[in-house]
TrEMBL record:
InterPro entries: Ion_tolerance_CutA, N-reg_PII-like_a/b, N-reg_PII/ATP_PRibTrfase_C. It holds the Pfam family CutA1. It comes from the Bacteria. SUPFAM superfamilies: GlnB-like. This is Divalent-cation tolerance protein CutA. Signal peptide: none annotated. Belongs to the CutA family.
Amino acid sequence: MSLMPQVLLVLTNVPNEEVAEQLARQIVERRLAACVNILPAIRSVYRWEDQVEATQEVAIHIKTIAARYAELEATIKEMHPYAVPEIIAVPITDGLPAYLDWITRETSKERNV
């Protein structure tokens, strides 16, 4: 039995749907993720530069593998309008094997397009 690569759920928030769509398309086109979910508007409350801020954002859930994480993070930082974007990777410890395998196949650098 072969070991499956570590699958990750990467989270980030962006200021609006336009940025979310642009980021999601680039990530999937570059095969840095198999799937990106763009969630409806959320309200974020946080401390930034010693001020409590509240703003509307769009949450993004990105499904990828650990081997693609560094390039994914670099792409998010490159395209993200925030000085310090939220980029959090959460290991997926269990899931439907066929779905996790699909994520692995779709993020493979060797995959023929």
